[in-house]
Amino acid sequence: MKPKIYILVVEDEPEVLDSIVRDIAEFEEYFEIEMADTAEEAEQIIQEILDNEHMIGLILCDHVLPGKNGVDLLIEMQKSERTKPTKKVLITGQAGLEETVKAVNEANLKHYIAKPWEKKELVNITRTLLTDFVIESVKDPLKYMQVLDAQRLAEEIRTGRHITDS
Amino acid sequence: MTFKLGSQWLEDPSSVTRLLRRVLTESGQPEKYITDIKAGTTLFREGEPLDTIYILLEGAVQLFKMKPLNNTEYPIIRLEVGSLIGILAFTTGFNSLTTAKTLEHCRFLRIPKSDVDRLLDEQPDFRGYLDELILANLLERFKQTIILQMKLDSANNQLQVERNELRQAYKNLQEAQKMLVHQEKMATLGQLVAGFAHEVNNPTSALLRSTDTLESHLQRFMEQTCFDSKSGWEAAGKHFFEQGKKSGFPDTKTIRERSVQLKKEFPTAGGGQIRLMAQMQQELIDLLRTKVKDNPERLQYFLDLFEFGKMFQNISSAGERISGLVRSLKSYSRSDSENRLERIDIREGIHDTLELTSNRIKFYDLNIELDEVPIILADAAGLNQVWTNIILNASDAMGKRGSLDIRCGHDEDEIWVSIRDSGPGIPEENLLKIFEPNFSTKKSGVKFGLGLGLSISKDIIEQHDGTIIAENNKDGGASFIVRLPIKPAAE
After folding, report:
1. Taking the domain B6-151, which CATH number applies?
2. Number of C-alpha atoms within 13 angstroms, CB side, residue B476?
3. How far apart are CA B271 and CA B251, in angstroms?
4. Does the domain made of B339-485 have the CATH classification 3.30.565.10?
5. For chain A, how many structural domains are there in total?
6. In this complex, is the C-beta atom of B318 within 8 Å of any C-beta atom belonging to chain A?
């Protein structure tokens, strides 16, 4: 079985979770979308995905969650070798500066999305980060050109940093 | 032994001097000793040796003592007729302890010490009378000392009373100032909330109204273009729409499990389609299966209708939530009421508070048991502050997980509210201190930005003639118990 790349969405409010997933549905042709409503459930899913030799390309994670919060989850993922390559996005409704700074510093957070978000913004960030992930971690980025940033992928392939094995 | 004149002296201090004068007259030299001194003259000064005694025959003399701190003279005793002035120096031989000044024109028997010794030898009666005089003077001084001591005592008491009154007044002033600041804050908050509520309610109503209109238009549109009463599947479409409007959200685990199942059943369906189906009732899945069996391309059509319904449901429930929050915020801060005291059911305030603090408490195991309580005359916004303070303190103490029990009830003359958490409890020595101003275990200021802590809560409860106490539960955590008297509410 070919390894699949997953997008994991963690959000405890079902309406919001539903909306996020719907907004990024256009990536679903190439990426698997998984949902979790707590950090603990997300950890289980991550474990299963990795145990099945698949990859997690991107996690979109709500900030305030029951139990462990999103920032802590992202920091732990950053610390673990297996989930370090995963691109991480914090979605926050109450941008407490302190927590966000912590996430930026400790979880290598490049993006955060403030609620309410716009679909275009969410899709753009998702595309950029998945492109990054594919360039860094996938041997044959060519097949993602349709859905990701084709120009950057083409540039990658042209400069020969990737040697396709197909 | 009894002195002949001891008691008589107390009645009439001048009697001894009269006798002494008679003795001196008998010795034939009275004029030699009788001296007139005008008012304001200093007889002797503190610290000087004294070689003369003065026996006051007419007028009055004031004794002064020097105050060492600021070098001023301080009047200590007024001596009347019959007094022996310089008695201590005379009897002990020490330097004078006081300064003596005449207050008015005075007449003395002024006898040098050497003459006294001679007179004592020559006149046997003189010794007796002088002893009487000395004793009588000492008696008088002693009496004065007792009177002074009593005056001092009562002055001290008076001072203590006044100091306590002052301290209380200062405390009251502090409390009043604190309350004023607090009320000012609440008033500002009320105005802000009123404006905010207005501003938020407008777009929210626009949102909800437009959605209603959109929905009815969409229904009409669907009926005109898609529904066909002859063939069944279009009518079923409306059913999918309606079910979508009623559908809830299963948790992610359930969705995942059902997705696995549905994927087997609908192998050609995409991830998004499966996810939607995972949110459908089994009855709807069964219907879907029969509807698309011969027309697999119809799947998206039904799913779209289902999702239409779902979107409408999402929008209206989100809108309801916004209006609910605004309503709670308004009633919480009582921005629409002028009078602070109203006839209220305190449970409404507790509900508002729970609604507004929901982001802090939604993950707790909440047990709310609010029994019916009588309507009382109370400051609704003030009480809401109290509930908020206690609940947010509990939340701070518990962190992410815990349980919060909120109960209320009443007996004949009191309503009680008990808020109990499962946090670490309060150290015994702090159970009373937590109600003092500026007491805090938090690292930085007030997190919620509204409350001024438990001291203001105590003030508010006391303004209702109620009580608030904190105690530790036997099985862990702390409880706050508020009692409010049920007073016959004035109309």
Report:
1. 2.60.120.10
2. 8
3. 17
4. yes
5. 1
6. yes
